[in-house]
């Protein structure tokens, strides 16, 4: 008899589990549930639709019917799974017709995460937004199109805040970026962040650091900061973080870890071997330290989906850990990071060295050569790479890709000069910036 495999949650994780399962098993009965209207969409593309870079909303979406047909599966949207009976292997779910139950043989949880939205005094819900779902995106887009706001405050300078400040300003709004920390983008160090801060201010963004939001007043158009300073804004976007959606898992007796995410083994199994979990809701070991991390990125979710599906289908291919490799664009700058930063290494008590290097992304005599800045964090004794960061207008993505690969391969920094990287004047220099920073890092190691 065909196995019944249930998937709770869509987007990057759930849809890819269905695809991988069907690739290897033509007989299984695969069912996807999502409490939202959309089963698969590009979270990362949403800021660019708001900013009119992506012109068609449908380009971000994959319809439930297409998923159902392509993977010969059952897809239920606007359907919330409310309980898991692990003893009898039953799911309870609620849709427009009421509450129902269905049996499962294997269950995959991909419930994702939710944007944090503190309940500030004086907040007008019609003027304050988060951005994590298609509904969030639509709400921002509709407000801008309908009410024609002239100004926007963005609270939080992480990935969402950085991408939104560019796209909101592209619509002609005056933007104020408010960040509680002493520099933007806490995943990079202050010297790297200073390049970002200078750039966004050159673009006309008002930047307020070491500032927190205390409350709203004047029907939500005045933001009262912790310093006592008032900021006027017609609308506000809260980009202060996310939290994993673990309520269903916890209610079912599944173990969560120290980061707050669902704890899984290297095959993405929870403490119940018939229930798997992946994506933004789980914690996984860091590839360098083995310590648990909660990292919400699309790339790891895709890989975890393949790992879980393979194990369900009888193959033991372990997930080897998370690096947290990420890149984003803000105006003309690209910013990339992989591995651990100084704050994480300090918290773990790891002894490390750091080195930075700034050069041109390609041969200086070839037109358009822009600066690129690299940073490495590495073991002070043997040169093992712990983390890398890159900032610049050109060539950040390819340097990040090389350094992320080096980190994954446990390549020590003194071997970076040996990498034979492609060279022609429009692309690099005979010694690529990655080679050069490798020389600089090697010089800091003991003889």
Q: Please, could you describe this protein's structure?
A:
With 447 residues, the protein is α/β, with parallel strands linked by helices. The protein has a five-stranded parallel beta sheet. It has helices spanning 11-24, 46-50, 64-70, 134-147, 159-169, 190-202, 247-251, 298-312, 342-348, 396-408, 433-442; strands at 4-8, 29-33, 40-41, 61-62, 74-76, 80-85, 90-95, 98-103, 106-109, 113-115, 128-129, 151-155, 174-178, 206-208, 213-217, 222-225, 230-232, 235-238, 242-244, 262-263, 275-277, 282-285, 292-293, 326-330, 333-339, 352-360, 371-379, 385-392. The chain has three domains: 4-113 and 243-312, 3-Layer(bba) Sandwich (FAD/NAD(P)-binding domain); 117-240, FAD/NAD(P)-binding domain; 332-442, FAD/NAD(P)-binding domain (3-Layer(bba) Sandwich), CATH 3.50.50. It contains eleven helices and 28 strands. Helix 1 (11-24) packs parallel to helix 8. The chain starts with a strand and ends in a 5-residue tail after the last helix. A hairpin with a 4-residue loop joins strand 15 and strand 16 (222-225). Helix content is 26%, strand content 28%. The radius of gyration is 23 Å and the shape is globular. It comes from Lentibacillus kimchii. InterPro entries: FAD-bd_OxRdtase, FAD/NAD-bd_sf, FAD/NAD-binding_dom, FAD/NAD-linked_Rdtase_dimer_sf, Pyr_nucl-diS_OxRdtase_dimer. Residues 327-428 form the Pyridine nucleotide-disulphide oxidoreductase dimerisation domain. This is FAD-dependent oxidoreductase. Its cofactor is FAD.
